[in-house]
Amino acid sequence: MHLLLIEDDLDLGRALQSALKVEGLSSEWRRRAADAPVLLDDEAFDCVLLDLGLPDGSGFDLLARWREQGCVAPIIVITAHGAVEDRLRGLNGGADDFVLKPFVTSELIARIHAVLRRAARQASERWAIGDLVIEPRRHSVQRAGQPVALSPREFQILLELAREPGVVMAKNLLAQRMTPLGEALDSSALEVHVSNLRRKIGADCIRTVRGVGYLLVTP
Fold this sequence. Notes:
There is one protein chain. Helices cover 37% and strands 23% of the residues. With 219 residues, it is of the alpha/beta class. Strands 2-1-3-6-7 form a 5-stranded parallel beta sheet, sandwiched between helices. Helix 5 crosses helix 7.
């Protein structure tokens, strides 16, 4: 999963990127409002950590602009402004959560996973899709009660498909979402990983839509 971090504090930004990396979450870090994407691509970022007090503008303005554009990516506001009015403005403006500084990093990580679960329409740490059970934080997969050993690439592909079971994900988008884990995947490499994933979890779980992409089959 790939996050966008917008935070001007050097020490905090470095600490957050390190903590995210430990959790297996990649991130891009911007320090000014001017460096933030004008158009926030839901397909490029799974979640946004947004500081309100930026040196050249307000995080509120970024939040409002992105939501007006129709961006649906989860956005967590991180700020030292603890006034009730600020929290209400952020939440009413489209923020999915509001975390006050100073905060415990482990709590922020838990909140990130919580908003990602909600975005994926999952209510717990266990994603149950038929007899397939995925536990993202443990990098654990079971099929019919039996553990399935997957490589990091295979697990990430399964996780992306499991976000919207029964919905086709285009090959180019799936390959793009693998990029934060390392080198970009070309089409042939992606097909090899999907083939290996099918062999391990069952060919009936993943369907190929010719000329489009893949979908995780729901019972």
